[in-house]
Amino acid sequence: MTERRWLDDLESRAWLGFVFTRDLIAAAVGRDSLRASNLTYVEYTVLARLADAPDHRRSFAELAAVLEWSQSRLSHQITRMEKRGLVARESIPDDARRTAAVLTGKGSDVLTTAEPAYVDSVRRHMIDVLDRDQLTALADIYDTLLTHHRRPAQTGTPTLDRHSDQLSERRDEPRLRDRDDRAG
User: Fold this and answer.
1) Interacting residues of 132 by C-beta distance below 8 A, sequence separation 6+
2) I need a labelling partner for 22 at 20 to 30 A (CA). Which of 40, 119, 146, 179 fits?
3) Beta strands 57-59 and 87-92: pairing type?
């Protein structure tokens, strides 16, 4: 039997720091988003991923992969957002069994209204709290972790099997950069 490797103080501090700060920051940004635009953090993320796609549409499979969600979770979320008029479902012409989520005009307007408050909140709760060296170190750490969890499992240890090109796509959270920066 293999001896259990418990977390030492540094390892425990790193793990709990990640868990607690992720939850605290996401909750704070979510509260700010709701207050500013009546849009949840999750709704904002879905709308931003659709806005970043060609023709503001993605197949459910593609959107689920980009969000790193199950298709079931995505379907339930899209249903809720459809009721608010933020997104619509459309059949994919070449394959009637597949469906796409499409950003509506109302969804685009709500997202445009929400963007400044969202970016301000992310800055206030995370970005501006850290100096550039800390941000660089944190970004490098997350790149390493994302690369590890998105590679196909080779050792029998379960990992997320994600397309490697999504790492660069996910590095910049959607809609955090100025629209002019993304045009070129």
Assistant:
1) none
2) 179
3) unpaired
